[in-house]
Design goal:
By secondary structure, this protein is an alpha+beta fold. Helices cover 12% and strands 29% of the residues. The chain is globular.
C-alpha cells in the first residue's frame, strides 16, 4: 500500500505560534516568485468562536477579547510565517517554512447567509516588501553589482552567507564611473539582477521561528544566476489520492488524428505556467 501523507499547517504572527488553526483557517495559498515579491493569501472564518445562530465577527476583534478566545491578532504589517508539512504513516515528517512576510491587505467578506459563510481574506508579501517603503537616492562606487546587492540585503538584516550571492566582474572606481540609484531598494536590486542575467529573491531558512516583528537572518537574500536543475522534480503520480503529485490527467483516443500530448508546468526560471 502506498504511503499516505497527511498535510499540516503552522502559523506564527510576529514569531508567536498561533493555536487552534483548524477552528478558523479555511485555506492558505502561497505563490513563490523570483521576478517579484512572493505572496500569500489566507482565508479565515469570521466567526470561529461563536455558533451558527449568533456571535460576533471574532477575528476582527483585537486586544483582551482576542487573547481570551485565542483568536489570532490579524492586523496590517504584522509579520506572518507559514509552514507546510507532510506526515507519513511511518511517523517521519517533512516540514518547510514557505513564507515569512507581512500582512499588506485585509478584506472582510460578508455573505448573504452571514454565518458561517462570511470570511476574512488576508493577503500579504514576503519581507522584500520592506524594501519598497521609500525611494533611495544614492551614488554607488568602488563596488561590484554583487557587492551592492549584498550591502542592500544586509541593510535590512537579511542573511547573505554561503553561496546566495554570485560574483559580478565589474567594479566602478570613483574617478572613472559611478552608479546612481533613484529607485526603491527592491526596484534597484531587480535592475541589477536583470542586467546580469540573475534572479533575486528572499528564501526562508529552515529553522525554528524566532519571536519578533522582523525575520532578520531567518531569510536569505539571493542574487545569483538561475539554477533550474538544482531541485529534482518528483515523478508524476495520481496516487495516493490524498497527496498526488499529479492533480489531473485526461486521455483521449481518436482514429482519424495522430496522438497529441499537452501538459502544463511551472517554468523554473520565469515561474510562469506553460
Amino acid at each position: 500500500m502506498a504511503d499516505q501523507r497527511q498535510p499540516g499547517l503552522r502559523l506564527w504572527i510576529d514569531g508567536k505560534p498561533v493555536d487552534r488553526i483548524g477552528d478558523f483557517v479555511l485555506s492558505v495559498e502561497v505563490e513563490e516568485r523570483s521576478d517579484e515579491a512572493s505572496s500569500f493569501q489566507l482565508t479565515v472564518a469570521l466567526n470561529p468562536v461563536g455558533t451558527e445562530d449568533g456571535g460576533d465577527w471574532d477575528v476582527l476583534e483585537h486586544g483582551a477579547f482576542a487573547q481570551a478566545n485565542a483568536v489570532p491578532d490579524l492586523r496590517l504589517l504584522l509579520r506572518i510565517t507559514i509552514e507546510f508539512s507532510l506526515l507519513s504513516d511511518d511517523g517521519s515528517e517533512q516540514r518547510a517554512v514557505v513564507m515569512d512576510g507581512y500582512i499588506t491587505g485585509m478584506e472582510p467578506v460578508f455573505t448573504e447567509e452571514r454565518l458561517p459563510g462570511s470570511r476574512l481574506i488576508v493577503s500579504g508579501l514576503d519581507a522584500s516588501c520592506l524594501m519598497h517603503f521609500e525611494t533611495v537616492a544614492r551614488e554607488w562606487y568602488g563596488m561590484s553589482d554583487a557587492d551592492i546587492a549584498r550591502s542592500i540585503f544586509q541593510k535590512y538584516g537579511f542573511d547573505v552567507s554561503g553561496t546566495s550571492i554570485d560574483a559580478t566582474p565589474t567594479t566602478r572606481d570613483l574617478d572613472r564611473s559611478t552608479l546612481v540609484q533613484r529607485h526603491t531598494d527592491a526596484e534597484f536590486l531587480r535592475f541589477l539582477a536583470k542586467r546580469n542575467g540573475y534572479e533575486t529573491f528572499l528564501d526562508p531558512v529552515q529553522q525554528e521561528v524566532k519571536p519578533g516583528p522582523h525575520p532578520g537572518t531567518a531569510l536569505v537574500g539571493h542574487f545569483r544566476s538561475p539554477r533550474p536543475d538544482q531541485d529534482v522534480q518528483p515523478a508524476l503520480d495520481l496516487f495516493p489520492r490524498i497527496a498526488p503529485s499529479l492533480l489531473e490527467f485526461r486521455a483521449k483516443w481518436e482514429s482519424n488524428l495522430p496522438p497529441r500530448v499537452r501538459g502544463w508546468h511551472i517554468n523554473e526560471t520565469t515561474r510562469r505556467i506553460e
